[in-house]
Design a protein that fits this description.
This protein is of the alpha+beta class. The protein has one domain (3-91). Helix content is 24%, strand content 18%. The chain is built from 3 helices and 2 strands. It has a two-stranded antiparallel ribbon with strand order 1-2. The longest helix is centred in the first third of the chain and has 14 residues, at 3-16. The termini are far apart.
Amino acid sequence: MSAQAKQKDLWEKVTKDQSSWTYPNPAGMFLERMSPTFDAPGDTMPTFPKRTKFIHGVGVTAKVRFDLVNHATKYTGIFGKGGKYGLVRLSSAA
């Protein structure tokens, strides 16, 4: 997929549900496995039944363009080359 097509596909998924959410009780995070979050490959999180996002559960997402200033970087993708098509999600931890 091109970067533009990938952004379009992900944006459709992001904007599909625009309902508001509330912060869950963070104590629940100690009872749930976090490894699926870290082990998931790719740009999207697999759907897990009854999975609550305890940390950074409420946030906003926007389309971004990333202009690379320092070209001497070891990063890949948008952080290594910059790009016209990206997404950013901002949230607080509590």
